[in-house]
Amino acid sequence: MSPHRSNSDAGNGGPDEKSLHRNLYDDLSFDELEPSPTFTEEAAKQFFPVHEEDRIDTMDSPVVVECAYPGWQPGGDHYPAVPESKDEQIRELVESVEAGAAAVHVHPRDEDGRPQWNDNDLLVDILDPVFEECGDVVTFSQGWTTSPHADYVSGVRDLLERGDGNKYCQGGVILPPGLFGAGSLHSISTIKEAVRYYEDNGVKPIFQLYDTHVLRDLKHHLIADDELEWDPYVVCLRAGSHHSQTTNNDPWSYFKVLSEIYNVRQSVEDSVVGLYPGGRNWLPMLMMGLVAGANVVRVGIEDAYWMYPHEDELVRKNSEVVETAVEIAEMLGREVITDPDRAREFLGMKYTSPR
Predict the structure, then answer these.
(1) pLDDT tens-digit profile of 33-46?
(2) CA distances in angstroms from 180 to 60, 150, 176, 187, 244, listed in the order given
(3) Can you count the helices (H) and strands (E) in the chain?
(4) In angstroms, what is the C-alpha Rg of the chain?
(5) Per CATH, the architecture of 64-347 is what?
(6) Of 191, 247, 339, 353, which is least packed with CB atoms within 10 Å of its CB?
């Protein structure tokens, strides 16, 4: 019998629905069908095996927050966050350390609010109260002075004498080979002189990369030539150049952060990779760096002016920027190292001044 009803079947005593389905299913009665079983825990584990996913270790490492303050920007009406006195600088540095910055990078300003490039008297006057109030802090200082070839030794030697060790310059900033910083050439020879002197005197070289070719120079002229002995190497990507077109465009700023972090990791195996985000896009680049596992992030009003890339709200306080960085890192599950001794151990540094 055909399972389909003909027109003559309708209303003429033809087969009913039950008989039709019996023919379709080999005379199996609807009454004999069991309902579908409940979706069990074992079935859920089979079809949704989230418990079998391996950990992803990209963010499974600590991060050190470095505070860059007060920097070089003009203050006053232009940028009220810039301090106008020595006391303001001290107070905001203390609050930044209390907000979670284990390291500080300070360009001191005089009582008229003018930046002083290599005034070690002023730098010590500002850092001492910070040590007194906070107990300890890691210092990443710019020790080089201007000359036809940048002099990396004289200023650092003076700071080492003042601190009877490296208190005021535990990490020394090394700028890229070939760069003219404030009119000074940062040549390979001056940089080699710097790293030899730094490592011999307990100062950790903190390398800044402005572009990919700098990594090649670092690897070829310093690491391959065995100029560096004090590992891990601290290599920080300078993504905060305010004149950089790349760091002010989306999505290129994000691509730049990702590609350069992994370029350093794959090129220099024994390295701690840092990120210095700046400009309009400092906040998204900071987040991208934290997601990509950057181990040092530098934030502060030296590199930032606008709080958000899409709004014209100015950064109000340096310590609030530090607090934001710490909150984002912890929200992402990153461990923020706030203890200076732990930070130095992680970065391969040591403290050589009397306690």
Answers:
(1) 565 567 788 888 88
(2) 37, 9, 9, 9, 16
(3) 11, 10
(4) 31
(5) Alpha-Beta Barrel (3.20)
(6) 339
